[in-house]
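Re-run requested by the PI after the first attempt was lost when the workstation crashed. Everything re-entered from the original request form. Ligand of interest: LLP.
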Amino acid sequence: MHDFQYHGEELYCEEFPIQAIAKEVGTPFYLYSLNTLENHFRAFDSAFSKVEHLICFSAKANSNLAILRIFVRLGGGVDVVSGGELFRAMKAGAPPGKIVYSGVGKRPDEIEYALEFPILMFNVESSQELVAIDQLAGRMGTKAAVSLRVNPDVDPRTHPYVSTGLKKNKFGINLQKSVDEYQLASTLPNIKVIGVSCHIGSQLTDVGPFVEAVQRIKELVRKLRAEGIQIQYMDLGGGLGITYDQETPPHPKEYAQSLLNELSGIDCTLILEPGRVIVGNAGILVTQVLYTKEGGEKNFIIVDAAMNDLIRPSLYGSYQRIQPVQRKNQIEIVADVVGPICESGDFLARDRQLPKVEPGELLAVMSAGAYGFTMSSNYNSRPRVPEILVAKDRFYIIRQREDYDDLIKGEFIPDFLA
Ligand code: LLP
């Protein structure tokens, strides 16, 4: 359940009419509901209440400082994949001891930055990375806490671009080879092995693949312990899906229960890295109709948001529900909802049945809270849109709209061209 509902014919975010926000901030903009964000986080967190656990919100899904802060205040940690995300997590007040750092390509400067605090652990994805972290930690006179991210070779049955736990994917260390890697890790003087981690993919709508992965990880933990390698943390990554259209993903309670059934007696602190399931349906993108073109092969609704603002439909062919902010017209048409970018791939929806809309009307692109703003760009020199947070009957600008000067910030014309 989320807080974007019609009151009469008017779409609200919590107690605030969205039309009124658009009047003040202009369009397009991302809009988040505090209540939904908090409810989703609490629901996920409490699903694991029976065991020692830490919810590290995956910053890549939505890294706005205010959004990270909301989860930090609820006791959450952060899963980061870059120095930039680590910087954001720290600015949002995340305790470094609740930050995990994943990713296949951590640069030396990023590793040093994380070692300075130090963070809870690095999820290490290759033996070269392990050696690099050991050397950097040694140089800094510290010890790096690590888990190895293993690739359990489980098919998550999701979109190939967001599937990560198969042997053919670039992520993690092969499960069979991982015992050797752990042995290497335990010989390195500046490495402290504390855990095991995995992440098999995103937008999973079935618990089956998660359960398979956990079974394999559990076996590995047993083997490692038998070898005298201590494993205190088991990081199971993120990946739980949401409803964009007709999907029926498991509730976090069901997801947690399926994992916990496999893990009784394992005696590890669980780490989860949810992203989408917390923020996806807590945010929307509000856009204004600029023009409509009817007839010919197709109908087009041309709006002021584009693939640079929300790339998921163009990149993954993913479905985002679109609703009018004011329900005016009963007549429906089938149309492509497209943006102003000069690419045919610039669409938010294709062949979509929608109420007939006029220029000036607002549309809400639903389920845009995850991988929406964070994947946005300035393509076609379009300033990035603002992010707004609603709390009951108030709204807060949590990121201002970029202006033209922001577009050229840091660019220089060399003297010889003057
Ligand atoms: N942990 C790791 C190591 C990850 O790679 C990811 C997502 C997560 C956690 C969070 O996964 P989530 O709970 O959000 O599924 N841009 C794509 C999704 C890419 C996911 C990448 N990794 C999309 O818009 O669908």
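Saved to the shared folder this time. The chain has two domains: 4-32+280-407, 34-279.
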